[in-house]
Amino acid sequence: MSDAYHREEQNNALLASLSQKTSQLKHVTLDIYDNARSQDTLDNTSEVFSNMTGSLRGSAGRLTRMARSGDKVAVFKLAGIIIATVLVFYFIIRLIF
What is the pLDDT of residues 17-41, one digit of tens each? Predict the structure, then answer.
């Protein structure tokens, strides 16, 4: 009778171990799924930055055409706006850090 009891205890221990391993496998599977979803988010972010790069190139081209056209006042105004914006960001970042 103690032999049967001993085997039952072994079975219960193995069943608990199997249950724990199954639970760990489930968590790993969910982590892989979450990681795959975040990779998709990263791919979308890369696409957004790619579109932004294209927009910046287009803007730079328009600014170059404006500068070549000889409109000096507009170029100086734009340069002043850019310098002022950079200085404002610099002082904001300096205040924060």
Answer: 888 999 999 999 888 888 877 777 6
- Measured N-to-C along each axis, helices 72-96 and 2-68 cross at an angle, to the nearest 10 degrees, of 150
Closest by Cα among 57, 60, 97, 55 to 89: 97
Q: Give just the sign of the alpha carbon dihedral 48, 50, 54, 60.
A: positive
Distance between alpha carbon 54 and the CA centroid of its chain, in Å?
A: 20
Number of neighbours of residue 82 by Cβ within 10 angstroms = 11
**Is the pTM higher than 0.70?**
no
Structure tokens at 87: 């200085």
Other CB atoms within 10 Å distance of the CB of residue 44: 10
How far apart (Å, rounded) are the C-alpha atoms in residues 2 and 13? 16
